[in-house]
Write a structure and sequence with these properties.
Oligomer: single chain
Largest sheet: 7 strands, mixed
Structural class: alpha/beta
Strand content: 15-25%
Shape: elongated
CATH architecture of the largest domain: 3-Layer(aba) Sandwich
CATH superfamily of the largest domain: Domain of unknown function DUF4159
Number of helices: 23
CATH topology of the largest domain: Rossmann fold
Number of strands: 39
Number of domains: 5
Strand order of the largest sheet: 16-15-17-18-23-22-21
Amino acid sequence: MTALGPFLFGAPMALLALISLPIIWWVLRATPPAPRDVELPSLRLLEGVEPKEETPARTPWWVWLIRTLAAAAAIAGLSQPVYAPGARNEAPDAGGALLVVVDNGWPSAPRWSELIDSATATLDTGGRDAATHLLLTAPQTLNVDPATRLSRTDMAKRLSSLRPQAWSTDRTEALARLKASGLKPARIFWASDGIEDEGGRAFAAALSAIAPLSVYAAPPNGPAAITSIASQTDSVSVTLRRVQPRGDERSFVSALTLDGSALATAEAVFIDGERETIASFSIPAAALSRIARFTATGRQGAGTVWLWDSTNRSRRVGLVDTGSVAQPLLSDMHYVRKALEPFASITEGNIEALVSTSPDAIILTDIGQIQPDDATRLAEWVEQGGALIRFAGPHLAAQGDDLLPVALRRSSRALGGALAWDEPQAMARFPETSPFDGLSIPPDVRIRQQVLAKPAPDLARKTWARLADGSPLVTADARGSGTLILFHITAGPDWSDLPYSGTFEQMLRRSIAAGRGESVNDAEGAYSPQLVLDGYGRLASAGANAAPLKAADFDTVKPSEAHPPGLYQGPSGTRALNTGAGARPSLIESWPPAARLLGDAEARSLRLAGPLLSLAAILLAIDLFIALFVAGFLPRLGRRTKSAAALLLLCTLGLGLPSPAEAQTYRYEQMPDGTFRRVSTAPQVVPMARTGNTTQKEIDAALTMRLGYVETADRALNTRTRAGLSGLSSVLNLRTSVEPAEPDALNLETDALELYPLIYFSVPETAPALSETAISRLNAYLRSGGALVIDTRAGGTIGTDTDVAPLETLLEGLDAPPLQPTPANHVLARSFYLLDDYPGRFANRRMWIERTGGPNAPRGDGVSRLFIGDADWISAWAVDERGRDLYSVDGGPQQREMARRFGVNLVMYVLTGNYKDDQVHLPALLERLGNGDEAEDPRLPDRLPEGGPQ
């Protein structure tokens, strides 16, 4: 950069074109050649006619003045002038050695060309044969020795070949190298980045004490660095810092993939007086997982690039939907969801939908039977690198599958309780080889029940956590590139107190990381550089000088030549070393009094290239307009033309205003091909989709509540079942507020089962096994809150036990939980009527329900959804069209009445749940409140009225 008074010129050779201005002026004002005279006979008629317009002999002075000024402005603009008062590179002593100091750290990258131009311009001052020396402040292994003598030509070549580095300057080390070289320069020129880091003022004072100092400072404008990021499940906040706190400033940050594709852009606004601001991104988790880096738009440099590694990225976790539950806040899914929310993006759905999104982990809570198609999908997904995390429970204890890390016993182990010998167990210390190693053991956590693993030679290797007695608590095993992980307890507090502790969240977090092959205990490991950033913020392959980095030092090391910023691969996956992490760059505001300040350090510089070129373009446009107007090529504006122009102007202004659709927020929607599109979140009316697959039967079932029954191959049995449910519906209409319509016959493979709150299955004597489709749909129906009543109608045999042997073949694959005989104090016995038995056509028969439905079971707040018996209730309920009983009952009218009361209780229990369960526990509640030994309260009834609605 050449200095000419208060002006600096980046391309001074362009000023030589000013010599051509006199020639341009002479050409523009020259008289046009005289027209050639041609004698035509017809022109004699015009003799004596005076012409009204005459061609001027010369170009008007104001025309050639406009053109000359346009040419001069263009030439001056192309010379890249900078107005900088005091920017004179001449030193008092034009002779002697010249030391050029260049800050080549990452803050210099945004204005690197200016620093090099200023250093090159200073070579034009002083003696031509004077020696020059170079000192670079960014540490390098092969850094140039300041004592090395360079000619001015070699120095210019060396400066033009320099590039900014991706790490910070070390001015203390540079000053030590200068003193060790013994160089005594006559003058010093410092091309500074203007940043105070690493002792900028002290370095300037030291250089000023050695020799007369000239400083050209060029600090970065706008955002200097991205210092940190904070991620949530579906958002990221990027923190930017600038060095100059004065004035309002607007910038943008782009989220890019590894190949440079932009996924989103966020605005960052610096307020006057503030050095930091935040750019916030709100995009879906699926798109968030594709982001590899953030960069300040239009700002080159390693400091304005933030590489996003796998440790900071929010995890994407899929939760397999187990259907609606009576009390969601007490469900297993609630505790898993709360533990994952701080660090993961959660998606809920069925297995097929979750596998298609390829999350980091999929979690299943107590699912004992997985359908074959879903099991195949899960197995393929795990083998490709997925982490499948499962929790035990009554369903898994009753039946398992192949997607488990260890073989399980077909029962659970109860620890503590009236009938158990063992006391609830505490957790043992985590093994050193476990991903949980290093986590604290909560002293108050006790395990009350667990599923047991079968002994095996490799069981110890697969165990990540144990109980105090040595039995496995968490086991895991590799499956292809992925991992199967099993917690031998429930995810809720039914079997243990672990979900109440903070250790549960940490165990889940480490399970997801370890399941993806990322270790969390990597203090002894090392990370190898894969992709590194150069000084301009561009990703490139790691060079030979880049060395591996110890995992223990990763959080404390600063970027350097040996450890450049970039992406490192190690035991915890990919980790990023960022240039601007934790940086707090600030401006050097005070300089040594003896130093000559140039550039931004002088604080009065003004770039003139843009204004001069704009002036030249405006003058040429004016000249063209005048020429076209004088030549008559421009139409004269009439009234209509003026109106059209005004209308065109209004339309143009209207297009520039933000439309209501543009002034709203947006969200991102994933397309089937994996890409994302931006869609509006404004309220809009979406018409209901019309399909031709909806039948009138489904519409009627959706509009009016009705009971359903499984249609079998036995037509007579189907007629009996329909008559029985019709009779029960009539009783409900007469005695309760439930008003069901006529029952529907259901095909388990085709009909919409979820429209029916209760489905009755009368099992034929020779019934074939249900198909996989029917079993899958029944499992989904039960998980979504439906109730299934299975009646084998075999109650005429001797004894009270129900023969369930035929059901094992018929219902093979049904995800049924452990069953229990209906307790005497179960809420089913008092949901509407007070009952002691549940008779049908046959009396004194045992009915089996889910163990979760009993008030004394661990999940006493649940509602049973499976009922199995053989009392032939359907025959006791059956009536004809006139309401007359169709089939005889062993106990006569009294037993038929009790059977109908049981049917009413059953429907009320299915529809209303266990809201009357507190009445079952009323004596215990009174005793706990201290009223057990006191006199009876006259306001409380001795017992509930028998036979009336409750």
